[in-house]
Amino acid sequence: MVKLKYQAMSANVFRFYRGTCHLFYEDLAAADTLPPSPVTWICGDLHIENFGSFKGDDRQEYFDLNDFDEALLAHAAWEIVRMLTSIFIAFDSLGLSEEEALKTVHLFLNSYSATLKNGKAISIDPRTADGIVHTFLTAVEKRKQKELLKKCTQGKKSNLTLLLDDSRHFKVDEPLKKDLENFINARMQQNKYASFEYKVQDCIFRLAGTGSVGVKRYLFLLKSETIKNKYLLLDMKQSLPSSLHPYIKIRQPQWGSEAERVIAIQERMQNVSPALLSAVVFKDEPYVLKQMQPTEDKINFELLKYRYNEIDKVINDMAVLSASAQLRSGGRQGSAITDELIAYGQSDNWHAEMVKYALQYTIKVKKDYKEFMKGYKEGLY
């Protein structure tokens, strides 16, 4: 799994950046050069690919922040400067100019500040989305569960199994598989889907993401015993301590588990959370359990290359959502209240320092990536 993670990180400098969140915050804590900012709940790994679509518990599709593995209480600037750096690095990976990246970074900062200044959290769904995000959400809304099943499974409708002929899917040893099946079967008797009498049909180890490659993650195929050929896909991902935690001096709440931390902060920051989201404990280890959905997706910036107007609209939406998540979760267990966030948004005298740090750190990431690739090609990893 470590080998596969390094392979993913070798793809380009942006994938390397995604897989080294811990290095970013280690360096940021040591630099300690950012201007003061309010204490807020942050997702902890904000970058352009950690926004996506999903179906909420209300069965409506949303576009929002969608990765909270690193989430905790921190200064707002830590979240935003990681996002700014991701824009510079992503544009560089796409072969776009630094001038365009700089323009987009300022757009993000201005939209983020304006949303804070307004003091009102905003959500984005197919009814409120604009531009490429509207097109994106409209398309994913039409996807059906059967399309996802076709992509992940094999066999006849009455007896499907999960695909192992996939580079991201791995077989689970039989004793562990049996324990996992029993665990999920018992869990399904305790939720709103209990009337469908779902039973686990198959289970595999699933590889996903970049930074989390190798973390225990299982994909379950469940079949209803009351409705013919009705299936459900569940994702169960191990929750580890946030990679930011060693570098944060702000006192954190005492959570029951790392999974409870992830879900509690996610539910505060998102307008509506994904279906079947819950914290579970399997073999004394915490996991986040949720439904795997045909609507869950991310915008492919490679396809938007040179379409600057559309990229700007997406980045503007991401800025609005970032500020909205902080507003929505304000005043909870030590996070800044709305008035403090409004005051922060009313000033732009901190913008220049944030851009300066992001630009300087982009140079360091590229240097680190070059050093990493030298070792990778020499077989050191």
Write up what this structure looks like:
By secondary structure, this protein is an alpha+beta fold. The chain folds into two domains: 219 residues, no CATH class; 137 residues, no CATH class. Helix content is 44%, strand content 16%. It contains twelve helices and twelve strands. The strands form four sheets. It has a six-stranded antiparallel β-sheet with strand order 7-8-9-10-12-11, sandwiched between helices. It is globular, with a radius of gyration of 21 Å.
How would you describe this structure in keywords?
single chain; 381 residues; alpha+beta; 2 domains; six-stranded antiparallel β-sheet; two-stranded antiparallel sheet; 44% helix; globular
Low-pLDDT regions: none
Which series of helices and strands comes N to C? Answer: HHHEEEEHHHHEEEHEEEHEEHHH
- How many strand segments? 12
Average per-residue pLDDT, rounded, comes to 90
Task: Report how far the terminal alpha carbons are from each other.
Answer: 12 Å
